[in-house]
User: Which sequence fits this backbone?
């Protein structure tokens, strides 16, 4: 199998022809088996990326070839601050000392959606390149944010929404159980509105807002007045999985079928289904939104993610989204080709970005900040990407991510072994995925990138 791996580490270009070694303490996850029992791997491309202070910087190309010990480059050699992401320094950003510190050759051969990159990683030094990080929206750690939830005053929303509805910033709202916006209807959310989600108690489903196929969400927050989905609990009591999450469903292609029920949703009568043949489908707008303390793993392989996108088409607009304290994945795509930009995943339990079932969209400007003591028992990654266990599945997952900064557990643990070993990968591509990550920085992960 031919793998394309172009990496620029400092001034060293690496590919599969480099010298290979297998350290004795290296025990990578083994490739999955396809329906015919054969091993199935990914063919992800990592193009012009910088890997810093990963655990001996492993780059796994397949089960036989491993490049290791790429560079002794340290965080303090590259960034203006060496405390970004650590306790009491959440607002500091990983800014390069100089965009030319590594004589870095940017990859500009990108699809038309992308802005032509002028720097590597998520952030540059100008005001525009720091993308609203000095605004009310950019609050990645909301643990001390007071929302003053009032059970008596909150307007309860449950069941099916069968007419256009508007949520206003001067009121509070509570999602109770699974809330479905029906086909042909639009939920409009004013800038500055706060929506709370109910928890999972007994047999009661957690609060989840589901935008069905043919329905729309019009949630246009602003940098100073973001829209917030969050927990009902008080400061000090909030935790991952306090409520369900936000689910958008559309009619763009995927490789599972045209009428697939999204995972984590118990639905009947056409609710909760995604799939179709319209790549230009429009599910609405999500801009300047924070989604906090959401995401629940109901059972293995059956989870509600913080933001789930099932077959979302490229006429949907999604940008400036922050997920914090996700109880499962922060973002997960099931097919579709929606394009997104300016995304943050903070303190996620499982995967930060999970691309499945033929997702073929583009994503630019991404910041991932892990918690060194948080990982899922299934094994957590900054990026996990799969297509299908069926070799002929179409479309394949072929998304492109540019300008990512992903900060892993080893950096946050400051050189100690006090981190959750269930977190492993910066990037993992498997099951025939062909994800591309480019112009990006991966910091402090036990395994930098892995095609399995």
Assistant:
């Amino acid at each position: 199998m031919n793998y394309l791996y172009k990496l620029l580490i400092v001034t060293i270009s690496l590919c599969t022809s480099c010298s290979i070694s297998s350290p004795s303490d290296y025990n990578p996850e083994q490739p999955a088996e396809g329906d015919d029992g054969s091993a199935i791997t990914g063919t992800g491309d990592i193009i012009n990326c910088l890997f810093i202070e990963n655990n001996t910087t492993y780059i796994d190309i397949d089960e036989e070839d491993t490049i290791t010990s790429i560079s002794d480059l340290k965080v303090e050699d590259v960034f203006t601050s060496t405390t970004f992401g650590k306790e009491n320094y959440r607002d500091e950003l990983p800014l390069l000392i100089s965009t030319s510190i590594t004589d870095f050759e940017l990859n500009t051969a990108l699809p038309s959606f992308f802005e032509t990159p002028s720097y590597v990683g998520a952030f540059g030094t100008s005001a525009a390149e720091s993308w609203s990080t000095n605004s009310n929206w950019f609050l990645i750690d909301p643990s001390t944010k007071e929302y003053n939830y009032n059970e008596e005053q909150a307007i309860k929303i449950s069941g099916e929404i069968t007419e256009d509805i508007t949520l206003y910033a001067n009121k509070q709202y509570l999602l109770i159980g699974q809330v479905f916006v029906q086909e042909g209807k639009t939920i409009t959310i004013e800038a500055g509105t706060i929506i709370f989600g109910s928890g999972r108690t007994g047999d009661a489903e957690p609060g989840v807002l589901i935008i069905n196929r043919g329905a729309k969400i019009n949630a246009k927050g602003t940098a100073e007045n973001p829209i917030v989905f969050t927990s009902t609990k008080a400061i000090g009591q909030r935790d991952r999985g306090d409520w369900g999450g936000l689910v958008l469903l559309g009619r763009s292609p995927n490789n599972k079928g045209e009428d697939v029920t999204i995972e984590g949703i118990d639905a009947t009568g056409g609710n909760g289904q995604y799939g179709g043949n319209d790549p230009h489908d429009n599910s609405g707008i999500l801009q300047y939104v924070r989604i906090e303390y959401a995401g629940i793993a109901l059972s293995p392989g059956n989870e509600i993610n913080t933001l789930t996108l099932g077959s979302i088409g490229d006429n949907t607009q999604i940008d400036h989204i922050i997920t914090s304290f996700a109880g499962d994945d922060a973002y997960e795509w099931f097919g579709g080709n929606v394009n997104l930009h300016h995304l943050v995943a903070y303190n996620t339990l499982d995967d930060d970005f999970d691309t499945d079932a033929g997702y073929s969209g583009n994503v630019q400007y991404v910041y991932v900040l892990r918690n060194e003591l948080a990982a899922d028992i299934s094994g957590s990654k900054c990026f996990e990407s799969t297509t299908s266990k069926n070799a002929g599945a179409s479309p394949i997952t072929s998304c492109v991510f540019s300008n990512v900064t992903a900060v892993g557990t080893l950096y946050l643990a400051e050189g100690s072994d006090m981190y959750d070993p269930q977190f492993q990968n910066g990037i993992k591509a498997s099951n025939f995925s062909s994800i591309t990550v480019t112009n990006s920085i991966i910091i402090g992960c036990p395994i930098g990138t892995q095609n399995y």
In short: The chain has two domains: 1-18+26-82+94-132+399-452, 143-350. The helical segments are 409-412. The chain has one helix and 34 strands.
